[in-house]
Specification:
heterodimer; A: 316 residues; alpha+beta; 8-stranded mixed β-sheet; 17% helix; 21% strand; globular; disordered N terminus; B: 209 residues; mainly alpha; 9 helices; 0% strand
Chain lengths: 316, 209
């Protein structure tokens, strides 16, 4: 077995008990008056140290033990760096997440190309523990770092014609060796309805486990839509496009009968080639059973109203 | 104790080599090495791929033997075929026991509704009579029918290749390599039997006056 060169050494990872204890520590520090209760979290940026400080707590976080960082960072689907699960961790060191900019196009007032620093600046980064469910029927629990996508989209002042928003991943074969093979139609693209994009759970993400996103996880800027299959949560975003019509989405273009536009996690609607009723939790060990998949990945209470009156079997 | 007979020595080497993938998985189970994020998938893929590799190698014995005239190679064939059966059976048992956890309801749904699982399972089931009749005794008892029966290995391999192809999400490069190699292995046999038939026909024709 070869060891990827760019692997994060275990010594570099904040031990999970320390990572999760810091909430306790912070809470007691606030109680003692050592730290102001409203931490000055404005002015989000990507820290040069690789570690975020002053992350705001998010009350909705899952109360479950997150998946080990090692698994989150070494078991990835990011075809721009190869189609094997271990390929992105091995190959993504060629991605240059800095400097980075995002182009905004389509049905909005404020269009143009924006530096990542300017995109992040007015926002407050939060620490949110979400479920993550891949269409391949595996799942994990991830402490992401980000802020609601809707807060950013509002700044571009979408027009009344903006019914959907589409995202594009970087398309640079110099940085992404997998782009040399026409496995999917590049650049990778994904889309949401405006209502989905503005939903407070939809997270524009810059970190994981309190650290800057590893390249293989979609640095420097990715989407997390926790009630949809993972492929909707597009990585390494370089363009945001507001549009009136349902936008093209990469996996939907590749196999429309297998991957719908919505792709909401739904245990009752199987993928044509495998069941979606249960999932395998990453890191759970060889002899652990699969666990039942939850409707909307457990976020039904928050998001089901978005789909009222929509036939979820037809609109998979 | 190194066997003096070179064929016996080759058998020992091949036997040991065939056990390597199993030993790696066993080492991981007993904590001597570590699994990645998805151990069930890892075991499932190791068993499946090793089984297919060995099946392809088994099918390569005859063409290689004929092309190189190394006739003793045929004496390794039974062991290779049985190891292919062994790994593919472990692949199936991993799926039934570790992945589906003997949930017969979901297994029935998988087998009846998911063609790649149906075909894969059919392929392994068809290997059972070949494994059972692999002994010298059965070979003698069945005579010419033994060869006929063991031609089942061709459709079995095709089922394996299709099973591999159909479970792939988008990147078909690897199953494509398996399919191409299998076409060469089967294509060789077609060409070879045609040529032999022609030669036989030529030999039976009366000599020109």
């Amino acid at each position: 077995m070869t060891r990827p060169k760019n692997r994060i050494r275990p010594s570099e990872i904040t031990p999970e008990h320390v990572y999760f204890n810091r909430r306790e520590i912070l809470r007691s520090a606030v109680a003692l008056g050592l730290v102001p209760a409203a931490a000055p979290a404005f002015g989000a940026s990507i820290p040069a140290s690789g570690k975020f400080s002053n992350l705001a707590e998010w009350p909705g976080s899952l109360d479950e033990e997150p998946t080990e960082f090692e698994h989150i960072a070494t078991y990835n689907n990011f075809y721009e760096f190869g189609t094997g699960k271990g390929d992105p961790a091995r190959n993504a060191h060629t991605l240059k997440p800095h400097p980075w900019s995002v182009e905004v196009t389509g049905e909005a007032e404020k269009l143009g190309t924006f530096a990542l620093e300017d995109i992040l600046k007015p926002h407050t980064l939060e620490d949110r523990v979400y479920r993550f469910r891949c269409v391949e029927a595996w799942s994990m629990i991830v402490p992401w770092v980000g802020f609601p996508l809707g807060d950013l989209l509002k700044r571009f002042e979408p027009t009344s014609r903006a019914k959907y928003v589409q995202f594009f991943t970087l398309n640079d074969p110099e940085q992404m060796p997998g782009l040399r093979y026409p496995i999917l139609e590049w650049p990778y693209r994904e889309g949401l309805t405006m209502a989905e994009a503005m939903h407070p759970l939809t997270l524009l993400t810059v970190g994981v486990y309190g650290r800057v996103l590893p390249n293989q996880n979609g640095a420097p800027l990715r989407l997390i839509v926790p009630w949809k299959y993972g492929f909707k949560s597009i990585k390494s975003i370089v363009r945001i496009h507001f549009t009136e019509r349902q936008p093209e989405c990469t996996w939907n273009m590749y196999a429309p009968q297998e991957y719908g536009f919505y792709s909401n996690v739904n245990p009752n609607v199987d993928h044509p080639r495998w069941s979606q009723a249960t999932e395998r939790v990453l890191g759970a060990g060889l002899f652990s059973p699969r666990v039942p998949t939850l409707m909307f990945n457990g976020y039904a209470e928050e998001v089901a109203s978005l789909y009222e009156g929509l036939d979820l079997v037809k609109n998979y | 104790m190194i066997p003096r007979n070179p064929v016996a020595a080759a058998k020992v080497v091949v036997f040991a080599a065939c056990l390597v993938p199993l030993a790696i998985v066993a080492a991981k189970i007993f904590g001597l090495a570590s699994f990645g994020a998805n151990p069930v998938e890892e075991v499932l893929f190791t068993m499946g791929k090793t089984g297919l590799n060995l099946l392809w190698i088994t099918l390569a014995v005859t063409p290689v033997r004929k092309l190189t005239k190394l006739n003793w190679l045929v004496r390794l064939r039974r062991m290779l075929g049985l190891f292919a059966f062994f790994y593919l059976t472990l692949h199936l048992l991993t799926y039934i026991g570790l992945d589906r956890r003997f949930d017969w309801g979901s297994l029935i749904v998988d087998v009846t509704e998911r063609p790649y699982i149906t075909l894969g399972m059919l392929g392994i089931v068809l290997m059972i009579p070949l494994a059972v009749t692999s002994t010298k005794g059965w070979q003698r008892r069945l005579g010419r029918n033994w060869t006929r029966l063991h031609r089942l290995v061709y459709p079995i391999a095709i089922l394996g290749a299709v099973h591999f192809w159909w479970q792939t999400k988008a990147d078909i490069r690897e199953p494509l390599v398996y399919a191409v190699i299998l076409s060469l292995l089967l294509g060789y046999r077609l060409v070879d039997s045609r040529m032999r038939a022609r030669r036989r026909a030529a030999a039976q024709r009366p000599a020109a006056p």
